[in-house]
Design a protein that fits this description.
Length: 261
């Protein structure tokens, strides 16, 4: 697969998804949050499924998830890996606040408090937990990486698949760089383990962590305000990188070790 085809397939997913959502808004009551939320989930599933049916050829679909081949000891390691990525990604999320600090502007407190889920957030959470980890990992990791590797090196392949994964999250611009980095991490794990189930679980845990911060993140964001981008803040960033590399190395060591009979 060429880079151009990968871009066009990603664009096709976006067009199908957007077309279904806009059609539902036109046909149904645009003010009905529940119908809109359901239509977004359906649109996402239909868009990815259409591309899979039309363009995913060969025998790669057989035994696609390989959950039976997962090493149980690896699964708990994905949780601290997600914590490490939070510290790595945090400066990207705080980009605007860091700029304010550089320009000697007074930083406002995070002042975060959870006010309860809106209907839109409920359906977004359902999509993030039950839909996105499966269909996005299948497309951006298993399908794109497998096909791109037939023409490009692993470095180019990971960069392309991660770039497209980030672009599909255009609705949250602050998440573009973290999404790109997460794509590199998930793609590398899939490439090394040859088991997409690890990437699906990693994605699932990442979205659960995001949901937990949405609901119970007040104390965490208050703590971040206290850190005020000082020495401890950037120490955690460095610790996050070191921890991520260490955990990743250990995961790859375990998954590449022959299973005991």
């Amino acid at each position: 697969m060429s880079f151009t085809k990968a871009v066009l397939l990603t664009l096709l997913i976006f067009i199908i998804e957007a077309g279904i959502v806009l059609t539902s808004l036109f046909v149904f009551d645009s003010k009905n949050a529940h119908l809109h939320g359901i239509s977004v989930i359906i649109a996402r599933v239909v868009a990815y499924s259409t591309v899979f049916i039309l363009f995913w050829r060969g025998n790669d679909q057989k035994g696609i998830f390989q959950f039976s081949k997962l090493r149980p000891v690896v699964i708990p390691l994905l949780l601290p890996l997600i914590v490490a990525t939070e510290f790595i990604f945090r400066p990207f999320f705080d980009y605007d606040r860091i700029l304010m600090l550089i320009n000697n502007q007074e930083l406002p407190n995070y002042n975060y408090s959870f006010q309860g889920f809106t209907a839109k957030q409920i359906y977004s959470s359902i999509a993030a937990l039950l839909v996105a980890p499966i269909i996005e990992e299948l497309f951006f990791r298993k399908f794109l990486i497998t096909e791109l590797l037939k023409k490009y090196s692993i470095s180019i392949t990971l960069l392309v698949s991660s770039f497209l994964f980030a672009i599909i999250h255009w609705e949250t611009p602050v998440n573009l760089l973290p999404s790109f980095l997460f794509g590199l991490l998930s793609g590398f794990i899939y490439f090394k383990t040859k088991n997409i189930a690890y990437s699906v679980l990693l994605h699932f845990f990442a979205n659960i962590a995001s949901l937990i911060l949405t609901i119970e993140g007040a104390a965490y964001y208050k703590w971040l305000s206290w850190l005020n981008f000082g020495f401890l803040y950037w120490t955690l960033f460095i610790i996050g990188i070191i921890s991520c590399l260490g955990i990743l190395k250990y995961i790859l060591l375990i998954t590449n070790r022959p299973a005991k009979l």
